[in-house]
Every structure is written in structure tokens, then in C-alpha cells.
Amino acid sequence: MAKPMEDRLVLVTGASKGIGAATAKAFANAGAHVIITGRDVRALETVEDAIHAEGGNSTIAPVDLAEADGIARLATAISGRWDKLDALVLSAAYLPALTPVTQIDGKQFSQAMTVNVLATQALLANFDPLLKRADAGRVLGLTSSVGAAPRAYWSAYGASKAAFDNLLESYAAEVEKISKVRVAVIDPGATRTAMRAKAYPGEDPQTVKPPETVANRLVELVVNDFEGFHRERVED
Fold first, then answer.
1. 20 to 30 A Cα–Cα from 182, which one of 68, 86, 125, 200?
2. Per-domain residue ranges for the chain?
3. What is the pTM of this model?
4. What is the mean predicted confidence (pLDDT) over 137-165?
5. Which homologous superfamily is 9-233 in?
6. Angle at 34 between CA 30 and CA 38, to 5 degrees
7. H or E element: which one contains 142?
């Protein structure tokens, strides 16, 4: 069977669980060699085992995106082994407690800005050279509707996602005229993940779509390609 992503390299952040794990598996099933990153080594090993069981290829690269030099070390290691990166999937995110603006926990807010914003800028900066060396480098960023439409009690996370969106769209405008790199911002919508369960503890998880639905859409987006900056919400 043809593998549309054969001979292509994909890096997925937040690949230890949820949408990130499903995305790593989906790209591997499509033929890509997938670099899976996250903090939980055991969880990453479980994802890798699932990928290999299906005949796919992957490399585990544990990293804490909040570490000062973690991303730079990751980029150095990857560039030392591969000369290009075909797709960068930004799936990792931190959800602080849902509270009124006046009660935001400073430590949690700082963590959200570090993981969701500062790490995003560092990933773009460090992997930009490898993306530009690919025939058609693609960046896929997973966002949230609260970044564009503020909602009560979601301000800490929403503010970080608004900044996340701005970084990606600005980067898209900067590289569009000088390279073949293209950027897509994807809102996965209601999806069955641990983060969703944390935000909506009383919700029946079976009433929302599985992460595989989002993962398959991300692969489809890269395989079929897109022109210019792309934004969409994944529906059921």
C-alpha cells in the first residue's frame, strides 16, 4: 500500500498522550519517520511501541519545553542526524486552572505562557532552518477557540493561545515570500483528551470525538497540502 508521507520527517510535540500521540501514530502510519517529544518517557515508549507494532518508524526525544535550553538541545540533536524537517506539529500545551481574571495563579499563568508561547517561539526559531531545507516544510499549530473568543474563567489559557496564534500567523507572513514553508493553525474543537476532562470533569467523554479524528485531519492536510496561511476548526 502506498505511503504518502514516505521518506518525510515529522516532529510532534506533546506526543505522549491525547491528540499529540494520535497524530504521531497517524503520520507514522502514513509512512513518515516521526520524532515524538514529551516529558513522560514511559508514555512516549508506549506510543513508540504502538507505532512499531503497526510497522511504522519513530524516534523518542524526551524534552521539557519549559527548560531554558531544552529546545535548543533538541534541535541540535535532530539537525545532527537529519538535514531537513518536513513537518512540525505543535501539540504540546499547558492548561492552568480555570479561574476569574482576579484569581489567576501567577505560577500557573507563567507556566502556560512558557509552554504555550515562549516554547512556540523557540521551536520556530530553532527548527526554521530545517523546515526551509525541506521541499515543502509545514508547521501545524493546535490552538483553542478561547484564543480568539474570550470566555469567562478561561483568560489565562485564552491569553496564551491568543499569543500562540499571533506568533504562528506572523511567522507565516514572514516566511511565505522567502521560502516554501507554510503554516496552518488548527482548532481541534471538543476532543476526548485528558486536558478536556480536566476542563469539563462532568462531561461524558464518549459524547466528543476521539483524538484520532483530529490526527487524521492533520495528516490529510499535509498530504493534500495547502497554499498560504491556513486556519480551520476540525468538526466531528
1. 68
2. 9-233
3. 0.97
4. 98
5. NAD(P)-binding Rossmann-like Domain (3.40.50.720)
6. 135
7. strand 138-142
